[in-house]
Amino acid sequence: MSSPLVDVWEAAASSPFSPAIGKNTQFTVGFVLLAISLVLTTLFGMNQSLVNLPVLGVPASLAFGFGAVYMICAVGVYVYTMDQDEPPTLTAVSGSARQLYLLLRCIAFSNKAHVHISDIGIKLAVDEASVMEASAFLDKSLFTTYTFNALAPLHNSQHSDSDDESEPPSTTTPAFQISLPALLETLQIFGLTDPSTSKPPWARDAPYPTSTAFTGNNILGGMNNLCRISYYGPGAPLAVTLTEASIRTQCDLTTYEPEYADEIPFDRQALALKVIMRGSWLYDAIQELSSTSPEKLTMYAKTVRGKPFFALASSGTLGSARVEFNNQPQPSAFRTPVSTNFNVNSETGDQAANLLETFQLSDPHTVLRSSYKFNLIQKAARAMNVATKVSIRADTQGVLSLQFMIEVESGLSSSQTATGNATGGKVSFVDFRFVPLVEEDDEEGDAGDADETIIHNGTGSGEESGDQDMLS
């Protein structure tokens, strides 16, 4: 049964509106009416009488009014046509709006998002009080079609000389701000949902399971959900067009001038710590620590008996808690996340995968300790929940970087996937950066005792295992 709204659209498409005066002749008609009004006004001024008022005065006023309207409409159509003749700065088409919604929802803790468009993709960044920032990069491989036309820089005649004219013209990448909640509402206008919210915890490691006969897209007959993003230039809106079945919706999002703020400095060449682990394990740890209503999160790292040791501790009004991650084979008195990988390697004899896939510490003989505001770390929980892996990095200044690797669907539509034209899932990254808290003198004394307690608990009581170290 067809929708009444669709029937109305089809009926309107069969009888399009045609103005009495075409767009190409509005300028001529408006000019003629203005000329007539000028002549009639002159004649009425020369013969001012009550008899000439309906004969000359009223027609002059009507001619001037209609002529002015037609002239304004003609100029507006001309400017719009000139703008449309120029190619848009960005035209990107994705076969699924859900993958874009999944990535952008990870950084949805701010009202405004900075958008940077380049020839390799679209970057959306948000920040909070210059102590936390997050960015999601939509690589061009996520789109079936991605066309970028760089903007030519504005030429300033005051600084033009012979040297400048000899240089080749450079291009600029557009940057602007948009309302992030409005963009998310647009992407889920057809009722899109986050697939991770409908899965049990044990299924989070497989974000996109094998398609079955009961999959939503198959039940709906492989319904398309195309998303087209276009941007014409500075001052123009960001147009998002969604198409599902026979329904097509276009939303024009207002763009704002960008607020240029310095990024949080992070020195990738001077890393004090680098840890790679599963994102779901970090998510579970943060969820457990949040039960004590903590104000700050403290991170510990050290090499204990040749094995990596990583711990997260928090304290709040309801108590204190910590979660320890280590690759030691002996059981520990403290809870560590249980691996969901039940594959056993017969050659090495490992019964479970290491919790820490990568552990690099600049100074293995000292305890690395750094504290951060817990409520800021908790804002990355959505990214932790959907991420396959997370890279935890800290530089020598204490700045924390959380880089999440998220597997998304390919940019093809569901119908193309069903016919076997899909090339598999894609990988995208979401980055978070946090500024560390400054420890006071009295807190440093208490922290020393806590360091000794945590490291002592992490050593264990068993003998050192003969397994090979997993450090890379």
UniProtKB/TrEMBL annotation:
Q: Decide whether keyword DNA repair is in the record.
A: yes
| Keyword Nucleus part of the UniProt annotation | yes
Subcellular localization is given as: Membrane; Nucleus
Q: Mark the transmembrane ranges.
A: 27-46, 58-80
Pfam families assigned to the protein according to its UniProt record, in alphabetical order: Ost5, Rad1
GO terms classed as biological process: DNA damage checkpoint signaling; DNA repair
Stored Gene3D superfamilies: 3.70.10.10
Give the UniProt keywords, A-Z: DNA damage, DNA repair, Exonuclease, Hydrolase, Membrane, Nuclease, Nucleus, Transmembrane, Transmembrane helix
GO cellular component terms, A-Z: checkpoint clamp complex; oligosaccharyltransferase complex
GO molecular function, a single term: exonuclease activity
Q: Which family does it belong to?
A: Belongs to the OST5 family.
This protein's name: Dna repair exonuclease rad1
**Species this chain originates from:** Alternaria burnsii
